[in-house]
Amino acid sequence: MIRSVVCAVACGASLVWLAGCVNAERPAPPAAGPTVSYGNASPSVTLGEPHNQSDVSFLEQAVPLRRQADTLARLAIARSPDESLRSLAKEIDTAEQPSVTDALDRLRQWGQPAAAATPSPDPVSRDQLRQLASARGAAFDRQWRDDIGRTLTRSLAVAGTEQAAGVSPPVKATALQWYTELSSEQEKLSALTPD
User: Fold this and answer.
1) CA 185 to CA 192: how far, in whole Å?
2) What is the C-alpha to C-alpha distance for residues 182 and 189, in angstroms, rounded to an integer?
3) How would you write 140-179 as a 3-class SS string?
4) Which of 26, 97, 130, 134 is deepest in the core (most CB within 10 A)?
5) Percent of the residues in the chain that have a pLDDT greater than 70, as a whole number
6) Whole-number Å distance between alpha carbons of 36 and 6
7) What does the angle CA 158 – CA 195 – CA 130 come to, to the nearest 5 degrees?
8) 0.70 exceeded by the pTM?
């Protein structure tokens, strides 16, 4: 009888321990800070991938910045009379980082609404985009260099902030790759800009 009771208690304790292992969240590492999330029981969340508000903020800002750079690039491809400017615009348009789709997917996985990825504020306003769309020739090229320059500068700042303050390894890797691409694009833009 005592054996049966001991066996039942041991089996029950084992089941409780196993249930705790399956459902428990991993504890944060020492000094991780209170803003780090380590996932939850939702299967759509990448469990075990730490992230903080800087990672979320980077993705939220990267989406509209990337979209704006693509819009500006496509305008230049279609409208600029300058072959070297169109070449830079094509490079900007085909750049790989950050992928808007990947950024929005990751935000959803982290429980952030996709609608949160909105400009805050745009480096180039809608009025400036309309003015650019109606510009021609050298006036178009001059305004485009100014507009894309502001977009690249803002994007570099956002990517640099993620490098300094983010904790998500894949998001930091995206920010580093984007920073490298942006630096190259900004250097080529400087070479196009008249003295």
Assistant:
1) 11
2) 10
3) HHHHHHHHHHHHHHHHHHHHHHHHHHCCCHHHHHHHHHHH
4) 97
5) 70
6) 42
7) 55
8) yes
